[in-house]
Specification:
Helices cover 24% and strands 27% of the residues. It is α+β, with helices and mostly antiparallel strands. One of its GO terms (molecular function) is UDP-N-acetylmuramate dehydrogenase activity.
């Protein structure tokens, strides 16, 4: 029988540190734990909320729900069955993502180094299709193992079935209430080629002709540490807003009016705009609004100093988004999942 905890405090399970509670919560350390918790009579009729590290969620209030705290461990390496020489690494959904990056590098398996220091668990990574410094998870993902609540079976979903997009996947839409991820299998390339196309990363590695994966990982960690606050010190979920994507015509009009606009051309001819630059231009960088505010070193990051609520944070986020739209005609959207 599942070891449920009633009215369980979730403060340490969300990186904003909001003081919210769950009607029922249970630690899930295996697939057997997961099935038992979902089938337990005490949980019937309650909505189900899945939490990993809580690094990319905003808990808007107490949850009258069954909260599954995913802590499934596991790490296994296999040679790919294909002819490309790649290596498959399968990790449990409860494994720490940054820890996995470090372990693969230590094992001589490069490919995840650009994604270092992204907070959260392995199981949360596909939901958000995490990405940084020129690499997205979808480029390294072979499959996801998940419990299908509709068919009550465990299934394997390949990258196409995950319907990945920019900070998006099927797990945020049709599959949000259907799939619970228990493991992720990554496909690490051989031969490996470093991804150094991101200007800031290339600048950090300037002077190194052939940086290895560990050096790249260290450079990414250095950059992120300078720009982003430690959630253990200041409540935050990293970048709060997605970088908006606009067509070439709109981007050209914005550049004409704002010559210093920061943008990146996409493969389909559209442009990704730097949301942090847009917010900074609107004067929000470093602004405080009671218990919440905008981080002084990075306008993309909203912070919670303590004593506040999700209502305070979301009010500030709406004000920022409205101001950006009024000035630039572009709508920026939250990156975290709001529960």
């Amino acid at each position: 029988m599942a070891d449920f905890r009633e009215f369980y405090p979730l403060r340490r399970h969300n990186t904003f540190g909001f003081d919210v509670r769950a009607r029922l919560a249970v630690s899930v350390r295996s697939e057997k734990d997961l099935v038992e918790a979902l089938d337990d009579p005490r949980a019937q009729g309650l909505p189900v909320v899945v939490l990993g590290g809580g690094s990319n969620v905003v808990l808007s209030g107490d949850l009258d729900a069954l909260v599954l705290l995913i802590e499934i461990p596991g790490y296994h390496v296999t040679e790919s069955a294909g002819t490309d020489g790649s290596v498959h690494v399968t990790a449990g959904a409860g494994e720490n993502w940054h820890g996995l990056v470090g372990r693969t590098i230590a094992d001589g398996l490069p490919g995840l180094e650009n994604l270092a220091l992204i907070p959260g668990t392995v199981g949360a990574a596909p939901i958000q299709n995490i990405g940084a410094y020129g690499v997205e998870l979808c480029e390294r993902l072979a499959s996801v193992r998940a419990y299908d609540r509709q068919t009550r079976t465990f299934v394997e979903l390949d990258a196409a079935q995950c319907a990945f997009g920019y900070r998006d996947s099927v797990f945020k839409h049709a599959g949000r209430d259907r799939y619970i991820i228990t493991a992720v299998t990554l496909c690490l390339p051989r031969p490996w080629q470093p991804a150094l196309g991101y200007t800031e990363l290339a600048r950090e590695l300037e002077g190194l002709d052939q940086p290895d994966a560990a050096r790249i990982r260290d450079a990414v960690v250095a950059i992120r540490s300078r720009k982003l606050p430690d959630p253990a010190v200041i409540g935050n979920a990293g970048s709060f807003f997605k970088n908006p994507i606009v067509d070439a015509t709109q981007r050209d009009a914005l550049v004409a009016a704002n010559p210093s606009l920061v943008s990146y051309r996409q493969s389909d001819g559209r442009y990704k705009l730097a949301a942090g630059w847009l917010i900074d231009q609107c004067g929000f960088k470093g602004v405080s609004d009671g218990p919440v505010g905008v981080y002084a070193k990075q306008a993309l990051v909203l912070v919670h100093h303590g004593g506040g609520s999700a209502r305070d944070l979301l009010a500030l986020a709406h004000r920022i988004a409205d101001t950006v739209q009024e000035r630039f005609g572009v709508r920026i959207e939250p990156e975290p999942v709001i529960i």
